[in-house]
Specification:
The chain is an alpha+beta fold. It has a single domain, classed as Archaeosine Trna-guanine Transglycosylase, Chain: A, domain 4, CATH 2.30.130. 22% of the residues lie in helices and 35% in strands. The chain contains five helices and six strands; from the N terminus they run ββαββααββαα. The chain has a six-stranded mixed sheet.
Amino acid sequence: MEHVLIRSLEHLAGSPEAPSVGFGVETRGVPGPLYKLGAFQDDRVWVQLRGGLFVAKAVVRICWVGEYSDIRAVQNRTLGSPLHDLDDFWRGRPRYGYAGVATLVRESWVEPFWAGPRTYGYEWVVLQNDAKRASWLDPKPAPRGGADLADRFRRWLIRAV
């Protein structure tokens, strides 16, 4: 199975040699795709920046899904990663609800490409059939204003040393 993890550029970590995504996280007040369908060892995860630019890929090592009554319980599952300490990432999330946390390994940058919907409320998408895979991964032209996101990513990558 393949998945798409959607992140803000500000929530990326790593170096020019390799990303350090570490974890894919989904938290919602109602069950979302990761909570409902899960992710399993060796599933591929594509990393898309909000705005439609795909920049990395990784592989799932293990995934936890469950209900939570305190967002800190979900945050603590990312302990030791740069994501754990990003207050902006955790701010504004439901205080209680449904979550999935996938541990990601074998992370690598990909040649950036535009694909998938430009706006989407989820943090995680499960590509459970060919039609959904094509709608999310088939390359598309850059959206109006997309050059700005691509430039910001390139500048971020250079500074990530």
